[in-house]
Amino acid sequence: MIEESEKVMDHLDRVQKTRDWLNTQIIGQKHLVDRILIALLSDGHLLVEGAPGLAKTKAIKTLSEAIIGEFQRIQFTPDLLPSDITGTEIYRTQDGSFQFQEGPVFHNLILADEINRAPAKVQSALLEAMAERTVSVGNRTLKLPKLFLVMATQNPIEQEGTYSLPEAQLDRFLMKVKIDYPDSPSEREILRLVRNESVPDASQKFDDPLSESEILAARRDILNLHMADVVEEYIVALTMATRNPSQYAADIANQIDFGVSPRGTIALDLCSRTNAYISGKDFVSPDDVQAVIHDVFRHRLILSFEAEAQGIDPDEVINSIIASVAVA
User: Fold this and answer.
1) Do 80 and 221 meet the contact criterion of CB atoms below 8 Å apart?
2) Are residues 36 and 156 in the same domain?
3) For residue 135, what are the contacts with CB-CB under 8 A and spacing of at least 6?
4) For 270-282, what is each residue's pLDDT tens digit?
5) 137-180 pLDDT tens trace
6) Is pLDDT of 205 > 80?
7) pLDDT grade, residue 200 (50/70/90)?
8) Closest CA to 212 of 68, 111, 16, 72
9) I want to staple 46 with a disulfide (CB 3.0 to 4.6 A). Which of 9, 39, 123, 302 is the partner?
């Protein structure tokens, strides 16, 4: 039992070392760093929304340097085809046969840059691969890597020429993270970091990347993390409050058309566990649930026309739900 506990602490130390290094490379975006790690350790995918230049691309690329895995960026454009993501059959003139050429989705870390610029058919190809972890080619089904993380980004500023992700497909993402501009001290740190990066320096590289086996072991540790029954009931109550808001908070009863799906409950449980884990705790508390609920629920809530007309956003509704559901 003691030996098992030592293994858990060793995995945690390795994860926290990775987290600390990421924060030295991605300045002013600690929330994004934590959410990427939570997605990685929860075996989920991330949708990140923010203005250009806020280190979205740098974040996932830097993560690829901190783990042993392959990184691939896909720039989504209106003329992209599903086969540009999943791969295509190549005709071999030598023997008259077809050979499947794997697409970028067969890598470990995928950056789907500006996913809302591609049409629905292309979005569906990626989201199906995310959900099923497979790609169908003719009568064959090919498996994707066991270590597989997609971070999709979308720009909230420009909406012209974009294709909004349907709500049912948004639900495939473990979390939707909104990021903002860094503060003044962080902005100065960014300037210094960029200057230093222009001069080759081996010390900037992460010298001890996480292996796939270590990440999978950390995932097992997270699933074994202690969660009291009252915390589990709290998670379920928060979900139920989105489906039957009139029973919990009368003021938001007319603000929600559709609540969170069971997939959202599972995501809240996983993310709460992982948040507790990377914080160095051996149990899950209501604070961990509240720390991640906005990122887990904001893209799963479908607000009413009345709420949207009043300028109410999902985060405000989630705040009301947190205030109305008692912590046992």
Assistant:
1) no
2) yes
3) 86, 87, 103, 105, 106, 129, 141, 142, 144
4) 999 999 999 999 9
5) 777 888 999 999 999 998 877 666 677 887 777 888 999 999 98
6) no
7) low
8) 68
9) 39
Residues 6+ apart with CB under 8 A from 74: 80, 84, 85, 104, 105, 110, 111, 112, 113, 126
Range of the structural domain that residue 134 is part of:
27-199
Does the pLDDT at position 189 exceed 60? yes
Question: Looking at the domain assignment, is residue 18 inside a domain?
Answer: no
The answer to whether 42 and 147 are in contact (CB under 8 A) is no
Give domain status of residue 208, yes or no.
no
Q: pLDDT exceeding 90 applies to what percent of the chain?
A: 56
Average pLDDT over every residue of 225-235:
96
Assess whether 184 and 230 both reside in one domain.
Answer: no
- Look up residue 65 and give its two tokens: 């340097």
Q: What's the rounded Cα separation, in Å, for the pair 151 and 26? A: 16
Number of domains into which the chain is organized: 2
Are 103 and 39 members of one domain?
yes
pTM of the shown model: 0.91
Find the CATH number of the domain harbouring 229.
1.10.8.80
Do 65 and 181 share a domain, yes or no? Answer: yes
CA distances from residue 159 to 15, 163, 169, 274 in whole angstroms, order as listed: 37, 8, 19, 34
pLDDT tens-digit profile of 103-117?
999 999 999 999 888
Rounded-to-integer distance, Cα 163 and Cα 85, Å? 17
DSSP 108-142: SEEEEETGGGS-HHHHHHHHHHHHHSEEEETTEEE
